[in-house]
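Task: complex structure prediction.
Instruction: return structure tokens for all chains below.
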Amino acid sequence: MITELEMGKAESELELGLGLSLGGGTASKIVKPGGGGAWGERGRLLTAKDFPSVGSKRAADSASHAGASPPRSSQVVGWPPIGSHRMNSLVNNQATKKEDDGKKQAKDDETKDVTKKVNGKVQVGFIKVNMDGVAIGRKVDLNAHSSYENLAQTLEDMFFRTSPGTIGLTGQFTKPLRLLDGSSEFVLTYEDKEGDWMLVGDVPWRMFITSVKRLRVMKTSEANGLAVRHQDPKERQRNKPV
Amino acid sequence: MDLRLPSKVLEHILSFVDSNEDRNSVSLVCKSWFETERRTRKRVIVRNCYAVTPEAVARRFPEMRSLTLKGKPHFADYNLVPDGWGGYAWPWIEAMAAKCPSLEELRLKRMVVTDECLEKIAASFKDFKVLVLTSCEGFSTDGLAAIAVACSNLRELELRECIVEDLGGDWLSYFPETLTSLVSLDFSCLDSEVKLSDLERLVSRSPNLKSLKLNRAVSLDALGSLLRLAPQLVELGTGSFSDKLDQEAVSKLSQAFSEMKELKSLSGLWDVLPEYIPLLYSVCPGLTSLNLSYATVQMPDLVELLTRCSNLQKLWVMDLIEDKGLQVVASSCKELRELRVFPSGAEGLNDTNVAMTEQGLVSVSEGCPNLESVLYFCVQFTNAAMVTIARNRPNLKCFRLCVMEPFAPDHKTQKPLDEGFKAIAERCKDLQRLSVSGLLTDKAFEYIGTHGKKLRMLSIAFAGDSDLMLHHLLSGCESLNKLEIRDCPFGDTALLENAAKLETMRSLWMSSCCVSFGACKLLSQKMPKLNVEVIDEHPLETRPDSSPVERIYIYRTLAGPRLDMPEFVWTIQKNPEIGVSHLAIK
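Output:
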């Protein structure tokens, strides 16, 4: 995974006891926005060019920036450094402020469901994913996905690494799963706003993301009798996740 | 003649030595003092749960009654530490259950606590009294029920900013009728509504209750009846302050507040309506601590409140207070020691209150002679303001400035904020904690390294030009204990040159910098007393040595590499077959 961030200097220059050169060092100010390779957005170092300067027009799409619009300070992970409880509270305040009309209730629920119960992520849309047999859960950003296939792919990558020689969180090598078509050992399920566990895929994507609270990759054998959309509420089972 | 102090005498003497710092010194004098000290220490604090094993701690301090633990690095608060990194409470609770069953108090910060943990606590420690969880996660309200039902001598149950799986408000009803020992209850971070009648009964049978912090779901109406049952409260966190009450209810509530003669600390106040602010006037003169950081109150109403708070020592507020409001604080709150101003806009810049500038903080620094701790979020700042603040308040111990726009220069001169931070570092000789922001060059860090001799904790983001920056800090700041850095452009050189320094510090966190994989390997090799953890969500096995790593967390430890690392945490011991990097070693 060679990327644009690879240092140009020869490795032999890294020595203990090497004197520092003024203003030099091995770091160079980087990088074009939207760098390629596996590093891409994640690994690049944000510099002053990425942020519109204070006092200038706030429009993030100012013409002076090449390429994709630069991240606003609120889009940078963990910045400004405010704890998650406070952030959630601010987000809720924002949502409430913006309402004037009948949209209020729906938006409140949406904001609350997707942000409030989330493990502290600022960005709306991160929800928890657990998998049977795996002690430690992960999180996935629903807003970064546009469809069930998309989401399933991400989850497969997350829990079942497919690159050669690596061991996924489950400790097994596997072929790509097919979480959505019922052909694999596992199915994808979700808990909705009412606390019911349902099979993923029955409702339109847009409806799904407003009602999902969290996900679980469940063993197919355990998923028998799991609620589908039209199930009688009396029959719902409350599965306490692992 | 045996000149040694008989151990009984020494024990007696040590019973007067409370501070752990002093006890640590005592334990270094000689073997017998070490033995006596360890057998008599009741309160144990482990500030990095991976620095030592639970078994070692339990073995050394068999008479432990109180244990305090911290897990994840501080930047976990801002989502910079991926889920599953670690910080599990279970091994500690298991070890203590086996070796120190007389444990009474547990205080955990930034740790993963499961329901199993809480059940284990409830089942194992017969005289359990105090549970304080700060920024913890991993448990549900079922776990709280387990604690409530079993701990018959419970005194304190506090959940501070925890992430709890909220399955409903039933947990509160599990406190038995026989429980009358409660002194402090804080469930402010929970969402669900608890049954008011259960809460009222609990409060009325708790004559020693001094601190009660309700969650948002407790209505204003309910608050009235609770206050009437507990006028002796010293600390109160209200619930939501926005229900529409009729005239009678309002005057009853007002009466309830005026009966609270002992109240020193007030918080909560979610959604407080301006017309209810006068309800608080009667308690204001007695307040030493006021947390308005969740109250969306505008400046004029805030001013009315704050002019009455002449004894205030600690004020947390949002930037809705504006410069004008801070001027009022400066003239009314002469006892102020700690000020925190939080942003009111979630969208960052666009919604941030521009009527609050650096001037507000300058006013407070002029008017409040005891001001020693500051946390200030604002859009922009100037060097001149910082110089003035430093001149006014050389007694500052904690200065955390967060200019929210990364790389923002002095908005009047467009220069970097180097000179401002220089003034702070130079004049505030007792400065122990510093967070910097805005546009900063390596010079700023040269100043901090030169002058910040008492500095213990330093947080840096989006700053500096090169390795020199880190070099200045690691070689200059003698007392440096915790350093956390994100998005700064330095690489390996300074880190490797100052490797020895890292053993004198508790921890170093670096994320989105330019530290290479090879340097991490080299550092791990040279410094066996450190755990060098590379936290990277892309696999490292095939990475070239020169490629930068996402995050690196380095801490000194007696426990060696930990056994509970997730896949995305790498240490040199994990993949020894990758071998040492072939970097040249002089």
